[in-house]
């Protein structure tokens, strides 16, 4: 028997153990972040189990229908939102919540307030639920300035001020990818233990990739640099091989593949939607934070994505993120367009 290998296999690094280890590096820490994170993890486990049941939705009425008992059931995205909002508030560690599902920000009752603001999309890519394609939860965490005088400005901050960001992908396995500002780690849910186990330590995105990921159905309305970039992916002029196209249409799945295999994910602005589709606070920022922490880049077409200062909680922005060199190519095309203007 290989005792060293056996010891490794039985020495499980759960996400809670990982965060507690991180916390021990800060003697002043009182465990608030660990408590907040364990409530986020609880929300992810709940949504994972609900998503796994989605195929049975017609039978048991998970998808906004009436179930066999004649009870009205909530749609999965609405249900996921309720679970996250309740888990976050009950943690006693949050102050302001911004959810994709809620038009207004939630200011937590002063008696339950803590120091963190959480921005999140409880079930991103929800148009994919009914066909069983991977979907996910995305979140970012800020620190409030003064919890007794919290204002929207506490969340309308550039992404570079986030303390942590992550996503949980509900796919062939349930994977939670997290950065607390010192690298990126991936944890996979072991359903038999009900625990997220560290399976992808210190994720680094390849410096250059072989895949581009975009909704090409919008090409007719793209601007010059985006059109030129995608053309270069298909017909490279420098002797390199063309890139492969992969597009799930579910941001968490497309970004997860980009992070692991390298390449670029783009949702550009176009003539119909100059700001693109994706939301700054709970899609663009957390994914950009993870990309940079993994050694990649994220660009809006004008600037580093994490430098953006949102003025509205549901603001959108064009986004190009992924391998360092691939994003560098996009930046060069936008710079060339600007210098020709
Ligand atoms: P969805 O509309 O299914 O909720 O922002 C949401 C999102 O999915 C992303 O997850 C995904 O990357 C994008 O929209 C897909 O948009 P297109 O259908 O326009 O390609």
Automatic annotation (TrEMBL):
Locations listed in the record: Cytoplasm
E.C. number: 3.1.3.11
Residues of the Fructose-1-6-bisphosphatase class I N-terminal domain: 13-201
Keywords tagged on the record: Carbohydrate metabolism, Cytoplasm, Hydrolase, Magnesium, Metal-binding
Stored SUPFAM superfamilies: Carbohydrate phosphatase
CDD domains per the UniProt record, alphabetical: FBPase (cd00354)
Keyword Hydrolase: yes
Name this polypeptide is given: Fructose-1,6-bisphosphatase, cytosolic
GO MF term (any one): metal ion binding
EC primary class: hydrolase
Annotated Gene Ontology cellular component terms: cytosol
Main subcellular localisation: cytoplasm
Domain Fructose-1-6-bisphosphatase class 1 C-terminal: 205-334
